[in-house]
Design goal:
single chain, alpha+beta, Phosphorylase Kinase, domain 1, Transferase(Phosphotransferase), domain 1, seven-stranded antiparallel β-sheet, three-stranded antiparallel β-sheet, 22% strand, globular, binds adenosine-5'-diphosphate, binds magnesium ion
Length: 243
């Protein structure tokens, strides 16, 4: 085994959370080197800290938390430590568990880890089951089929009605696999209390505007008119259609 792969952190300096359905997960699982040729970097739609991992039984996705935007120039992978349970990976894992248990279309969470170091800082990673045959929304062959946009409108509505504020709803965080549409990447997302969850709530509008901008940016193979027409179909389904 590669030395990096066997790097072990003292137990009081890390927290490992494993979903009930999974056994045998260890710290090594979070190092891509541990998997050798079975770990393949995800090429499309992320910020470069994700790997697809092939296993005999199932395939999983490993993601190391990395910053985007300006902050990434200062600290790419480190975050300020305010407690293991508040760390990004543990929070996302717990949220995924809730969404999955509620029957929403999300991938199944496997495990999360937090590595603490130098008193104030931590790094984090998460393991999630891979959705077989999934492609990102913008890469989906049926993007020119109204039905896909209608279904996406309904799916977003379903998540919103559950109170999920997806702070990074974009084309790369929507996966399509056959008839299924899944949302992924719940870093920093939250469940809104039912009292703050109305059809007119600003957080809902913010999610939709974020996605609208992403459609402009990522679906360049569609004409402006097509994008507008499909977006109207999505919005109509979001606002009116029965689930
Ligand atoms: N559960 C999953 N099943 C299939 N593909 C996935 C899954 N999770 C992530 N991916 C792929 O990896 C990419 C990056 O993952 P994501 O969770 O969005 O992390 P980030 O955007 O922070 O890099 C996604 O756009 C998607 O292509
Ligand atoms: Mg993403």
């Amino acid at each position: 085994m590669n030395p990096a792969a066997s790097r072990i952190t003292p137990p009081d300096q890390r927290k490992l959370v494993v979903a009930e359905a999974f056994h045998g997960v260890s710290e090594a699982w979070f190092h891509p080197e541990y998997w050798g040729v079975s770990a393949e970097p995800v090429s499309s739609g992320g910020r470069g800290g994700a790997w697809f991992i092939r296993r005999d039984t199932d395939n999983i996705v490993l993601r190391h938390y990395r910053r985007g935007g300006l902050m990434s120039r200062i600290a790419k992978k480190t975050y300020f430590f305010t407690g293991f349970d508040r760390a990004r990976s543990v929070a996302e894992h717990r949220l995924l568990e809730q969404l999955h248990a509620a029957g929403l279309p999300v991938p199944e969470p496997v495990a999360a880890i937090v590595w603490r170091y130098r008193l104030f800082w931590y790094q984090a990673a998460i393991l999630i089951k891979r959705i077989p045959g999934a492609v990102t929304f913008a890469d989906c062959a049926s993007i020119t089929n109204e039905h896909l946009w209608r279904r996406l409108g309904k799916v977003i509505r379903q998540f919103h009605d559950h109170g999920l504020d997806h702070v990074d709803l974009n084309c790369d965080n929507i996966l399509v696999a056959g008839e299924g549409i899944y949302l992924i990447d719940f870093d920093r997302c939250r469940l809104v209390a039912s009292g703050d969850n109305k059809l007119s709530s600003p957080w809902r509008q913010k999610n939709l505007s974020r996605l609208r901008r992403s459609v402009e940016k990522r679906c360049t193979h569609l004409s402006d008119e097509q994008r507008q027409a499909y977006w109207d179909v999505l919005l109509h389904a979001y606002q009116h259609e029965e689930r």
